[in-house]
Write a structure and sequence with these properties.
single chain; alpha+beta; Glutaredoxin; 2 domains; 10 helices; 58% helix; 8% strand; globular; Glutathione-S-Trfase_C_sf
Length: 238
């Protein structure tokens, strides 16, 4: 049976799983779950993921959710996946696990919380929350500082000093890419981090052309938001 990916391309973890499958030649059927339309709360989807979140997969009779768990599973279940994504070496794998665990409690909390409470909340039926955004920005900045000073090491292009990307690189870069929709504000946040900028470029290159294709929806949303923000300025000049 064909592997089914239940994803929303505006979701950072969904994009990571999609890119991972495309890069590694894993055949799958993409099932779009529109969060803004509440499709993650339907009885059919809750049977697949009772947590009502994307991504999730169905592989035959096997169901799984949480992007990190999904990519770990696919790395072992599909023999064509290159070892560097999630190595068989127990020590290398443990190091990658440490990055992934850190991601959920730091970078994801900061980046996701900031973007949600400055831009995306209304599209999901929630009000913007400036106080929550300010708190998330503190977590985001501290997380970027840690990536720049600790997780990115001078002896390699990728996390942990590796010369090839892992699922940790893909997860964290997809998370940071969400800042794209903030426009100049996102650029301002990232501007001090030169090592992070190079690492993002290296990850894009290592996963081309799939990285850009999967992120195209994000770029379209960015353009719509920029157009919406500039519209009042145009009217004020008339």
């Amino acid at each position: 049976m064909t592997l089914k990916l239940y994803v929303e391309r505006m979701s950072q973890p969904s994009r990571a799983v999609l890119i991972f499958c495309k890069v590694n030649g894993i055949e799958f059927e993409e099932v779009s779950i529109r969060l803004a339309k509440g499709q993650h709360r339907t009885p059919e989807f809750i049977e697949i993921n009772p947590m009502k979140q994307v991504p999730a997969i169905v592989d035959g009779r096997f169901k799984l959710f949480e992007s990190h768990a999904i990519m770990k599973y696919l790395s072992r279940a599909y023999p064509g996946v290159a070892d560097h994504w999630y190595p068989a070496d127990v020590y290398k794998r443990a190091k990658i696990d440490s990055v992934l665990d850190w991601h959920h409690t730091h970078l994801r909390r900061g980046a996701g919380g900031y973007v949600l409470n400055t831009v995306l909340a209304p599209s999901l039926g929630f009000p913007l929350n400036p106080q929550a955004a300010a708190e998330a920005l503190k977590v985001l900045t501290a997380s970027l500082d840690k990536i720049e000073s600790f997780w990115l090491q001078p002896n390699g292009r990728f996390l942990l000093g590796s010369t090839q990307p892992s699922i940790a690189d893909l997860s964290l870069v997809c998370e940071i890419m969400q800042l794209e929709i903030l426009g100049k504000n996102g650029e301002r946040i990232l501007s001090p981090y030169k090592k992070i900028a190079n690492w993002i470029d290296d990850t894009k290159e290592a996963t081309a052309p799939h990285f850009h294709e999967v992120h195209s929806v994000l770029f379209k949303v960015k353009e719509r938001l920029l157009h919406k923000q500039s519209a009042p300025d145009l009217h004020s000049k008339m």
